């Protein structure tokens, strides 16, 4: 029984990281939901609303997910290992945490677009995505089709954040992994979405056009492949990392 309990510890740890992460960021998530629906209502008192507030909130969620994936791993690794958690357990737990977080936040994103579609419909607003030329989501089916990629894209950002964090912890020059990870991540995000590329202006110019005439299913396959590869590299970095002594 003790052996079985020890084998399952990594999964309990991953579940615990997820539940504690949700508790820690619950206030931020609620605030994002409130603002995404409140700000358009305020704007609607003086002007026609033609853009989805939830679209912007969901994009912010991508960055937050990368921060969660990287921040939790970087800060918790030395403490957990010092308390007897093995590197293999931590790697598995982080992977489970990422899957649960991405799935949960992805479902919230999908539900948000559907609720917002009803909300905008009641007020006769246009649920448009993109900033320059809003693409209207004209039906619940259209809204769901657009939002369906969010669980996968959140997993993409979580993996990218964890990979960068593990590389930085592993080596002082690990931050160089940002050079390939950021453009690849934004390009894959662009492939998955039917909206315009988003992000820093110089990076948007780099990825603009990469998704032209590319089937979204190809984008999904490439994204899944990057997630698997990134997770494997992150695991190897965790297993090879030495615990750093604190500086006096």
TrEMBL record:
Highest taxon, organism lineage: Bacteria
Transmembrane segments: 21-43, 55-75, 96-115, 148-168, 175-194, 214-234
Keywords in alphabetical order: Membrane, Transmembrane, Transmembrane helix
Name of the protein in its database record: Uncharacterized protein
Organism per entry: Glycomyces paridis
